[in-house]
Design a protein that fits this description.
78% helix; 6 helices; 215 residues; single chain; mainly alpha
Length: 215
Amino acid sequence: MIVMMALAGTMFAAAPFLIDAAPQEATMGLVYKIYFFHMPSAWMFLTAAVVAGVASFRLLFLKRPRADHWVIAAAELAVLFGAFTLVTGPLWARKSWGVWWVWDARLTSSLMLFMIFVAYVLLRKYGGAGSDKLGAGLALFGMANVPFIYVSVNYWRTFHPPTSVVPKLPVEMGIPLWFCVAAFTLLFIILLRLRARLEHQRDRVEMLYLAEDEA
């Protein structure tokens, strides 16, 4: 874990230099480079939703109680990366589209996914007994929105470019983009494992308290 953290820190320290070396976009100029952070954070946002959904399936249908720890960790990361996505997106949109926000399919569905996981976090904090299973159902609903968000730009009118744009990026733009994707992915894995481990330890402490009370 320490090696992964050191590698992630090194990659994030190097990322600004790679981004600075990338050429400027013809119409947006320097502002478009927000994209190098916006897109990776959006991918981690969707990845967190999928992880939360898969862990929720394991909790509800395979009866794996420890899966709840992964749901909690992934849901909180969905809120974190979702907030970063929804902040960086309008900064880019203002320069690219001339407006901060439009209610198109991708933006609206992304906001809905973010609100689903905010609701999950609030439910787990204040919902009391049974909130784990109810929250798992909510996380499954959130995961079901992920494919819709991804393909929305291909089937509905939207300001976002279609998904086919990314593979066609020039090498000078593609290298820093995929480097940032790798850095964000590594950060996501580290945070997910640490947060789930915290829940594991919290469960163990509660079990020890219960055992002491029974004794």
